[in-house]
Amino acid sequence: MYKKSALEIKELFIHKKKSSVEIIKYFLKRIEKYDPQIKSFIEVYNERALKKAKELDQRLKENKPIGKLASIPIAIKDNILIRNENCTCASKFLKNYKAPYNASVIELLEKEDAIIIGKTNLDEFAMGSSGENSSFFVTKNPWDLSCTPGGSSSGSAASVAARLVPISLGTDTGGSIRQPAAFCGIIGHKPTYGRVSRYGLVAFGSSLDQIGPFTTNTLDAALVMEVLGSKCEMDATSLHLPNETYLENLNKDLKSKKIGIPFHFLENLNPSTKKNFDESIEVFKKLGADIVDINLDILKYSIAVYYILATAEASTNLARFDGIRYGVRSKNAKSIEEVYELSRDEGFGKEVKRRIILGSYVLSSSHQDAFYKKASKVRSLIINAYNEAFEKCDFILMPTSPTTSFKLNSIQDPVSMYLQDLFTISVNLSALPATSVPSGFDSENKPFGIQIIGPQMHDVNVIKYANIFERKLSIFNKIPPMFDKE
Question: What are the residue ranges of helices labelled H in 318-413?
C-alpha cells in the first residue's frame, strides 16, 4: 500500500477494498518499523488515528457523506497547532505546551476526513536549512542516512519520501518546503502568501510564512490545495477569494507557454546542478514551451534582505516566549528579570538565539534606518523585478537548491548554511507560489529538484505545469531503496 498515492488510498477505502482501520494500522506499523532509522516523527497519534478510522468505517457502512481526504493519513509539522496535543516547535522551551485550539488547516483537513497520524520534527521554531537545529534529535534523509533531508520541514519531507505517510504539511518561510522536497525527491508546494490560513501556526516571519503540502506526486498536491486554499476569518492576511479547482485543470499542455530563465543570475551554478537544470529545460522545450531570458540579477541581494527582515520579525514574534506566558520557566531564576533571561537562555537553541539577536540589532533605533528600512526598499525592488519578468513569461524556472543534499554536520559556518536558500528566499519575499519537483539524480543517487515559480494567485497553473513535467519524466514515484519494501 505504501506505493499508492493518497488518491488511490482514498479509492481503496471508498470502494471498500480496505477499511479505514486497515489503512491506518498499515501506516502506523510502517512508521514503527522504519521511522527509528530516519527519526521524522516527534509524536505518533496511534489512539487518535484509530479512533477516527473507526468512525469513518462506521460512516461508510451507514452510507453517510465522506470527505475528499477520507482515510488518508497525514503528518503535521510540529509548529502547527492541534487541539489538546503537544506543539513543541522542536524546542525545549515548548516541550510541555499543549495547544488550546486547532489551526485552521487542521480544521479543514479533518472536515474532509483526513486522519492526522502524528507530528513531525523540524529545525527549532522553523529556523534552519538542514534539520540539525531541532532540540530533540536530527532527522536523516531517506535516500542517504548520512545526509540532511533539508530544513526546516525536515520530518515532514522525510516521512513522505520514506512513504511513512502519503501526505504531510510543512511551512515555508524562506524555502522550508521546497528545499527539503528537492533533497528528498518529492513534491513540495509553497502557496501564494495568504492563500492558506496561518491561523494556528507558531509564527516565525509573519510576512513570509506559508503552510503547504508535501506529496509524492502533483495530483495529491492538487487535492490538498483544493482543501487548504480557503479564506479564513481568523487570519487578517488570508485572501478572501473562493476555493480553486486544481484537479480538473491539470490535463493541459505547454504549447505557446513561455518559461523565464534568469540565465545571468544562474551562470555560476554547481556543474552537476547546471547539467540537471539544462536537461530539465530541454524537457520543457520538448513539451512545446518557449524559453525566455529574464533579468533577475537583483536576487543576489535576497539573502541579505531576507536575513534582515526575517530575523526582525522573528525577534518580535518570539518576544512572547518569556517563561511566564508560554513555555518552560527556569528553575534557577530568583527574580523576575532572571525569569526572563534564564528561561530564554535555557530554552532557546543556538540558531534561534542568533536570529533573535540579529533581529533585535537591525530593529534598534540606531540601526533601523541603515538595515531594516533599506532591506524593505530592496524587497520592493525584488517584487518589481518579478513583476517585470512575468510580463515576458508565464512562469519562471530555477533550481530549488544550489546542490543536492549535503552531509550532516558538514556546514558549520552560518553564512554558508544561509546560502543554501539562495534560490528559494526571493519567492517568499515576493509572496509568490512555487512548486519544487524532482528532476533527476546525481552520481550518488541523491535527488535534484527544480522549482516552478508563478505570479501571485497562480497556484493552480504552477501545479499544472509541475504535473505536465512530472508526466514527461519517468523518475517520479521512485522510492529510496532502503524503504522500498513492506
Answer: 336-347, 350-363, 374-390
Query: For the chain, what is the mean pLDDT?
Result: 96
Considering the candidates 176, 230, 405, 426, report the single residue annotated as catalytic.
176
Catalytic residue check, 330: no
pLDDT at 273: 98
For 264-335, where are the alpha helices, taking DSSP H only? 271-286, 302-317
In what helix (H) or strand (E) does residue 6 lie, and over which residues does it extend? helix 6-14
Task: Give yes or no: 472 in active site.
Answer: no
Query: What would the grid cell of residue 421 be?
Result: 536558500
Is the torsion defined by CA of 164, 99, 78, 95 positive or negative?
Answer: negative
- Domains in the chain with CATH codes: 6-255+431-483 (3.90.1300.10), 301-368 (no CATH)
Q: What are phi and psi of 395, to 5 degrees?
A: -155, 165
Q: Of 77, 119, 257, 446, which is the active-site residue?
A: 77
pLDDT over 70, % of the chain:
100
Given the residues 152, 302, 436, 439, the one annotated as active site? 152
176 — pLDDT class (breaks 50, 70, 90): very high
Name the pTM for this structure.
Answer: 0.97
Other beta carbons within 10 Å of 456? 18
Q: Does 380 participate in catalysis according to the annotation?
A: no
